[in-house]
Write the structure tokens for this entry.
Amino acid sequence: GNSVTQMEGPVTLSEEAFLTINCTYTATGYPSLFWYVQYPGEGLQLLLKATKADDKGSNKGFEATYRKETTSFHLEKGSVQVSDSAVYFCALNPRGSGNTGKLIFGQGTTLQVKP
Amino acid sequence: GAGVSQSPSNKVTEKGKDVELRCDPISGHTALYWYRQSLGQGLEFLIYFQGNSAPDKSGLPSDRFSAERTGGSVSTLTIQRTQQEDSAVYLCASSRDSYEQYFGPGTRLTVT
């Protein structure tokens, strides 16, 4: 079946530190991969996406590369800010014939950035 | 343009009562999804609409849960005889192509 596993949080960093949030997946076929972010009290926002192996998604200084050989899509940012404090969700869309596009999410990783 | 909207933003209800949650998708988006976000279960898919049809209802947890969509637009998720375990944030998302989904702010349901 399809599943997503994220590193457990919470992750606490100082401002300007380097961020990595690990995400690995299990899927049949060739899924699309996403990172969503949920700021306190808000809904999910799409942060970045990748549709095929070796694609790199990027947005707002965040990056993630679709690695088929390691079935991973780790999220990175070179210098985090206090405003990046949020919950980050890795997700996959299985795609393929008959697929409805429903997203399968990891459990979420809480990031807290301290000044 | 306008995003996905949901109402109410918060709902407190007594155990055993019925509730209706509403989702207004982005105009022109034919695909619509309901998800549930709870502390114990994370983010779970509930149901998928393409137009007014629901070809995938596999995530609905029991027959107390139902949903409909009319005019290819607004969707209503109904929970009958609510239970405490139904307490969660219910999220709606819409999509033009069943690929990139845009989420609403959610409805926080509390069953007392």
